[in-house]
């Protein structure tokens, strides 16, 4: 009996290092910049300043080349609406909640990847000196996240990750009365990110 227990315990101890070497998950933290292009439609023009913030991502590897990813991003910028009745600035918090499929190509320490998936996006107005209208509220959109980048492995547990991401959604309206800020066009927000990932 004692011999069989010893063999079982020994096999468990031998299995732990082998399991530990197989990193199937990672979490990354990146600095990000959202840069929304000029948008115009329905007699409304929309300019937006660049926004700076952070992106946190979690990946689970399905195979050496495929993974699923969850993302959360936070930024702040200023949306500038120009319409027939005036110009209005809205300082807002931008948040992204997205999920994607990631395909990775492996070249030694370099691991280029592409990804795409659905996303939910929130623009929440901030009541401060940068906002000059107050008849606004949170604007929520459903859209698409896509991207391409690379990870450079600096150790078995860490890599540096850089990516160009795109976020596609309808422009925010901030629920202004009468839909006066509605352009009825789509944003393709440019979103470069650089950060570090930890594998576990």
- Architecture, according to CATH? Beta Barrel
Number of domains: 1
Strand content: over 45%
Could you say which overall geometry the principal axes of the C-alpha atoms support? elongated
Number of strands: 10
The H/E string reads HEEEEEEEEEE
Put simply, the count of helices is 1
Mean pLDDT: 91
Question: What would you report as the Rg, rounded to the nearest angstrom?
Answer: 22 Å
Strand order of the largest sheet: 1-4-5-6-7-8-9-10
Structural category = mainly beta
Spans of at least 5 consecutive residues whose pLDDT stays below 50 are: 12-20
User: Class in CATH?
Assistant: Mainly Beta
Query: Describe the biggest sheet?
Result: 8 strands, antiparallel, barrel
Q: Could you tell me how far the N terminus lies from the C terminus, measured between alpha carbons in angstroms?
A: 36 Å
Helix content: 10-25%
Describe the fold and architecture:
- The chain has 200 residues and is mainly beta.
- The protein has one domain (24-199): Porin (Beta Barrel), CATH 2.40.160.20.
- Helix content is 10%, strand content 62%.
- It has one helix and ten strands; from the N terminus they run αββββββββββ.
- The chain has an eight-stranded antiparallel barrel with strand order 1-4-5-6-7-8-9-10.
- A hairpin with a 2-residue loop joins strand 2 (39-41) and strand 3.
- The longest helix has 20 residues, at 2-21.
- The relative contact order is 0.20.
């Amino acid at each position: 009996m004692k011999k069989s227990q010893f063999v079982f315990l020994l096999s468990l101890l031998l299995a732990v290092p082998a399991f530990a070497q197989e990193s199937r998950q990672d979490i990354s933290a990146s600095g990000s910049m959202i840069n929304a292009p000029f948008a115009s439609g329905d007699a409304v023009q929309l300019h937006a300043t660049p926004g700076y913030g952070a992106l946190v991502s979690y990946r689970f590897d399905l195979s050496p080349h495929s993974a699923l990813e969850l993302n959360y991003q936070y930024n702040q910028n200023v949306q500038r609406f120009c319409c027939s009745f005036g110009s209005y600035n809205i300082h807002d918090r931008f948040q992204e909640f997205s999920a994607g499929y990631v395909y990775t190509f492996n070249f030694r320490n370099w691991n280029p990847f592409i990804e795409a998936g659905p996303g939910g996006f929130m623009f929440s107005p901030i009541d401060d000196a940068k906002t000059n209208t107050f008849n606004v509220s949170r604007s929520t959109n459903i859209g698409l996240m896509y991207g391409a980048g690379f990870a450079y492995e600096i150790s078995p547990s860490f890599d540096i990750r850089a990516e160009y991401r795109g976020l596609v959604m309808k422009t925010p309206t901030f629920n202004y009365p009468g839909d006066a800020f509605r352009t009825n066009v789509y944003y393709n927000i440019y979103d470069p990110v650089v950060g570090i990932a930890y594998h576990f």
